[in-house]
Each structure stands twice: as structure tokens, then as C-alpha cells.
Amino acid sequence: MVLSCALVWAGFLALHLALNGRWWPWLAVSLIPPVTFAAVPLAVLACAAATGGRGAAALAAGCLLAGWSQNGVNTRALLPGADRADLSGRTDHTDLGGRPRRARAGDGGPRLVSWNTQHWNQGGDPDRFYAFLRGLTADVYVLQEYLNGFEGGEVWDIDDEERLRASFPGHHLAVGNNSVTLSRFPSVGPPTPVGACSLRVDLRIGDGILSTYNVHIPVQLTVMNPLRPAFLRDMRRRAAARDREYAALVADLRGNPHPVVVTGDFNTSAAIGDIRRMPASLRDAIGACRSVLPASWNARARLRLWRIDWAFTGGGARVGSYRFRDAQGLSDHLVQELTLTVPRENH
Known about the structure:
six-stranded mixed beta sheet, 28% helix, alpha+beta, single chain
């Protein structure tokens, strides 16, 4: 029985690794909690140890290793100094050649928060919503779902710019693609839409420029009867939209000469192959997080099993600290909070 379970899981894992991110119907399968890719082979290993099944144990161990990148476990949180993105433990302000490396805004470097607001306080108390945003006290706010009225796949644009400007004096405001970027640092040029769902804003920080990408990748499917033909049609349409958004994002990143921070709601867990599309030159901020099993959704549930909100840096920008903060029931997403270090000079 234990060997049979190991064989079934090995077959499933082989299909997952082969089809994930390559065949659109597998998007529905890849929605399983990422921790499953660690929990199942570990359970089989435990059963094999209890029954003396060496073959099952070897197969389960192989599955654990083969599927490790899919499980969302942050092993770097167990390493010394894991609250820093730079695991070498360096705390000085120079690069390896001893040259000044980073510009600061405040004692800990520019502080950025990224949050999917879940339809911008639709139906809630706007005073509480704005008080929460102000309480985050960030240098840069990267906010998604600046929209209202989700019903049957339809959304309605909103205009809250007057209140945003009044609530955040001294911040520069950029709005586009249903996204909001607020910054204490001035922008360089107008905001740039990336695809249909993301927004790039270049900020002047000290003598350099930091490109911020406010990302919101479309969700994979609509909750409906999976036996209806409309379910597959909708999922295929959404898969095509996700392809376009990832392609536009990656193309813009590859042509960008500036340091970058790329963050937002990717609607993609570690178990979904789409996340592999991000350029290898980018660094996942999770290395600066202290959580072994980080999860950002569903914020209203007691047990959270998915991390679908991500942050990446590149081009010399780095993350000093990274954590998820409670959204106080205002959204189904936790708030991403990170401090940044950026090169003093770049062009």
C-alpha cells in the first residue's frame, strides 16, 4: 500500500513538472497548496519507515527532492542572518570593492509596502481604510485593485485621487492599469503601463533611479461549475491573458537599465510554473523573510497555505528586510512590507 501511494505520487509529480506552466489546463491542478509537495512525500516517508518499505522510502525521498522548488518552504529563514536578503551577513554600505553602494531614506533605507486592496474598500468604511494606509507609514506605496464592482468578471474604474492627495501630502501619485503608486520620492517621467494590468513608475532616489513595478496578474479561473463548457473557455481565456501580462512584464524588465523592485499580486504560488518566467537576474525577496512557510492569502482565514504576493529586486537594488503584515480584515491579501537598498548612482 505504501509503495502504491509512492508510485501514484511520483506519477502525479512527473506530470506536474512536465505540464506545469506549459499546458493551460494544468493551471487548475497547480492551484493545490504548495506545501502539499512537501507534506505528501514526507507522509509516505514516515509510513515507509514504520513498515520497512525501502523502495517506497527511496521513491518518496526522490519525490521530495524533485518537487522541492514547488513547496513554498523558505529554508533560508533557518539560516543565520536570515532576516537579510544578503546571506553573507554584510551590514556595511559598500560593495565588494569598498565603494559606496546604497542610498537611504530614513534609518532603514526606503520602506515600501505592496498590497492588493481587494477592490479598494468596496462597501467598507473609507475612513478606516485610509487610516490603515496612513498607519503603514511607507516611503512608497504599491497598491493593486484600484477599482470597484466586480461582478461576472466586470470591473468599474473609480476616481479617488482627490482623497489620496489629501491623505498623503508630500507624496507623488501615479495611477494606471487599476493600480496606485504613492511615493515620497519624485517620479522621473510619466507612469508607464505594462501590459493591461501592471504599472511601472521610475523614482528619483538620491542621485539614482529606481523603477517600481506594480504588478497584478489575472487570476486563473472563475468559480463556477467545472463541468460546464464555459468553465474551460473562461480558464483558457484567462490563461492567455496571464501569458500576455507575464510576457509584457518580462519584456519591459529586460529592456530596463535601472535598478528595479517588482512587487504585487502575481496570483501565482510556488507550485504554479508561471513564476519561472521571471528573469533569472531578479532576486526573490523571500530570502529576507523570517517565515519558514510564508503565505499571503487568504488573509481572512486562520490557515493560510498560499503565497501569491511576491517581491523581486534586480539591477543592484536589494531587500534589507521583508515581512507580511495583517490587513485587519480589509482585504483577503496580507500586506508586503520591505526595506530597500539601492545604488547611489545609476543612469
